[in-house]
Structure formats: structure tokens, C-alpha cells
């Protein structure tokens, strides 16, 4: 449920900036404007979702694409994770593979970068 709300939120937001959006798989969005963006959307903001999204992104990633993992959350549970844990666990793989991590607040439509990726 939250994944589908995050996909809708991301689609609306990116279209408002004149990106053309294609949903190529259940949890994969591709956005095109000047730069090609590939987004893998997880089910919720949790460690296991980061790991499965990294794996999926590595399977589909095209060379030169701006790679994003987007994880949905709500405003009330935004404090339920520790960004330091995410940073410590995933800093190397996110930086090495140039992967960005976005949080999508599905209840407010807000997009944020939880660990400054």
C-alpha cells in the first residue's frame, strides 16, 4: 500500500518538473528529462527494504543513470529509524555505486534525503 502511494507521489512530483515517467516494473520508475533517473521504490523505510532495493537497482541500472532508492514513510513514523545506522551500514555501497537514498512521506507528499545522499 505505502509503496503504491510513494510511486504516485514521486510520479506527480517529477511530472510537475516536466519529467516523463514510465513505470517499467512493479516497483521501478524511470524518469527522463535532461538526465535519466532510475528509481527503485521499497515497501517502507526499513533496513531490509534498502538491501532488496540495492539488489534490484544493481540488476536494472543503466550506465549513466542517476540511481535512486526511494523508501516510503509517514510523517508520524519518520523518527522511527536512526539515520546514523543507515549511514554506517550503507555509506560504502551507496557512495561506491553512486546511489541516492530518498525518503517519501506519503501523507504529506514531501521528499527528503535522510542521510544527505
State the gist of this model.
The protein has 117 residues and is α/β, with parallel strands linked by helices.
Explain this structure to me?
This protein is an alpha/beta fold. The chain has a 6-stranded mixed sheet with strand order 1-2-3-4-5-6, sandwiched between helices.
Key attributes of the depicted protein:
117 residues; alpha/beta; 6-stranded mixed sheet; 3 helices; 6 strands; globular
Count of runs of 4 or more consecutive helical residues? 3
How much is the radius of gyration in Å? Answer: 13 Å
Helical percent range? 25-40%
Flag low-confidence runs: none
Please identify the structural class as seen in this structure: alpha/beta
Order of helices and strands: HEEEHEHEE
What is the number of E strands? 6
The backbone outline, from C-alpha atoms, is globular
Largest sheet: 6 strands, mixed
**How much is the average pLDDT?**
84
Order of strands across the biggest sheet?
1-2-3-4-5-6
Relative strand content:
25-35%
Q: Alpha-carbon distance between the termini?
A: 26 Å
Q: Any chance you could write out the topology, listing elements then pairs?
A:
Layout: H1 2-16, E1 20-25, E2 28-32, E3 36-41, H2 47-60, E4 66-73, H3 83-96, E5 99-105, E6 110-112
Parallel strand pairs: 3-4, 4-5
Antiparallel strand pairs: 1-2, 2-3, 5-6
Amino acid at each position: 500500500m505505502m509503496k503504491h502511494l510513494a510511486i504516485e507521489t514521486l510520479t506527480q512530483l517529477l511530472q510537475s518538473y516536466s519529467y516523463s515517467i514510465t513505470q517499467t516494473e512493479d516497483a521501478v520508475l524511470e524518469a527522463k528529462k535532461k538526465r535519466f533517473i532510475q528509481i527503485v521504490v521499497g515497501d517502507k523505510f526499513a533496513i531490509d527494504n534498502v538491501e532488496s532495493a540495492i539488489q534490484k537497482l544493481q540488476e536494472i541500472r543503466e550506465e549513466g543513470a542517476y540511481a535512486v532508492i526511494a523508501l516510503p514513510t509517514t510523517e508520524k513514523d519518520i523518527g522511527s529509524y536512526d539515520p546514523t545506522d543507515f549511514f554506517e551500514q550503507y555509506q560504502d555501497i551507496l557512495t561506491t555505486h553512486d546511489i541516492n537514498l530518498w525518503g517519501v512521506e506519503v501523507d504529506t507528499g514531501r521528499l527528503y534525503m535522510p542521510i544527505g545522499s
